[in-house]
Amino acid sequence: MQEGFLEEPDITDPLIIEQVINATGKGAYRSVKKILEYIIPSYVEKGILDPAIPTIHLRISGDGRNVGRKVKHVMITIALLDDSINICKPNYHYTTILFPGSENYPTLKVAANALTQELQELSNVGIVINNTLWNFEFFFSSDWKFLATCLGFNAANSNNFCPWCEITKNQRGNGQNDWTISKSMSSLNENSTAYPGHKLPPLFNMISLKNHVPDKLHIMLRITDRLWELVLQEIKNEGLFNDITRNIIIKEMENLKIRFEFWNIHGTNNWNYTSLMGDDKLCVLRNFNLTKLFDPERAALIKSLWDGFAELYDLLGEKTTDPQYFRLKAKVWCELFLKKTVIDSKTNTILEQGLYRSSDITPYIHVLVSHVWEFMLIHKRWGLNAFSCSAVEKKNHDHVCYFFKKTLKNGGKFQNKTSAICEILEHENRLLFYTQNNISLSYPKPQYIHIL
Ligand SMILES: [Zn+2]
Q: Which among 208, 166, 201 is positioned nearest to 185, based on CA atoms?
């Protein structure tokens, strides 16, 4: 399952950045009810929805794409989980909200106001289309930051870091497996500060907390980052992070056909390195020869941790994985992660090598070990792949690259600042027609666009 492992890069084209910054403050909204009125009849026609079982499982997704350093392009979409064949395709995620700006609570609250009102109404009374009263179950999926922001919750580095349980930073050590989803949206609706770390009323308070599903793509990307960081940290602690080691790493990356560089951060002793894209991360995780960096015993220990993680990633994508089996596997993996060094107190020699400390456990690792099995269980009908944000990220990335460049192309002058946003939604309206009628619609890939 390679296709679920894509990560869209930040947008760094200065022309696009300038256009997006110019458009900051201008947003757009397409009515969810109107989109549903348009698409539901065709889903019924195709047999994806059945009026005899009139429940629609609607997934709301959010994505904030970095455009340069200062601004984000934020997109919120809806998609039908019921359409399981198309849930991974960008064209079947319908854009409702679009704006360039910040991905913070006050901005999102204003931008999502019309959407949340419509969702509340759909949740309360449903919607009648062709004499069928449809009701809804809602789901929410995004990366950690977006999800926490929409929940009015702390940042991931806070003492209370988990949106689903009440674990604190110093409780990361033992019994990771005993934390289960313990908070509820109904408690937050009664009192938005019911749990430590919750500061503001959740924006999508009609969606249960169990249906706020973490994105498996980001779980995997960020944990791989952590495992790699820990290896580099260990080399630094040994005082071996020098040119020789850096060259060994670059050579090994070359063997794996991955372009990789280190560069010194000006005026410091710190080094930065190429941030790897999704597929390359997976390749490093599975194939990087750790014996180039460590003695055979150490290399084998770290390798077993990396392999265990790659296995968890595979299991995560399989709809047939037994959640209890995953729970057990994740527990064993976490124990290995936290393996303690055993020292002979008499001779002061190492009897058994250990790995990492509980403070090395990141929020994503906590979620993988403690909550993923539970999400698998709760959402068994759909599988966690159905909540991947990859399609929405791709849609947002491609839209920004294509439409903001296109505005420049039109006459070469900066035009009406809202035009790119409007164009995207006009494009989406056409898309609705084409996807519902099975006509293929494509626009050229961003890299083929040249400015005259
Ligand atoms: Zn938790």
A: 208
Cα–ligand 1 centroid distance for 384 (angstroms): 17
Q: How far is the CA of 165 from the centre of ligand 1 (A)?
A: 4
Ion ligand 1 residues within 5 Å by Cβ: 162, 164-165, 167, 179
Could you tell me if 347 and 284 lie in one domain?
yes
Question: In whole angstroms, what is the distance from residue 232 CA to residue 234 CA?
Answer: 5
Are residue 312 and residue 222 in the same domain, yes or no?
A: yes
pLDDT at 138: 98
d(CA 427, CA 61): 19
Token pair recorded at residue 341: 């060094």
Examine the domain organization and report whether 280 and 352 are in the same domain. Answer: yes
Residue 414 lies in a domain: yes
pLDDT of residue 381: 95
**Could you list the residue range(s) of the whole structural domain that residue 294 is in?**
218-378
User: 129 and 233 share a domain?
Assistant: no
CA of 150 to the centre of ligand 1 (A): 17
Distance (angstroms) between ligand 1 centre and the Cα of 113 equals: 28
pLDDT tens-digit profile of 87-103?
999 999 999 998 888 88
pLDDT at position 3: 39
Same domain as 272, residue 372 = yes
- How far is residue 310's CA from residue 396's CA, in Å, rounded to a whole number? 28
Low-confidence ranges of the chain (pLDDT < 50): 1-5, 412, 414, 417, 441-452
Residue 5 structure tokens: 């492992």
CA 166 to ligand 1 center in whole angstroms? 6
| Per-residue model confidence as pLDDT tens digits over 39-88 | 999 999 999 999 999 999 999 999 988 887 778 889 999 999 999 999 99
- Number of other CB atoms surrounding residue 193 within 10 Å: 12
Do 289 and 331 belong to one domain? yes
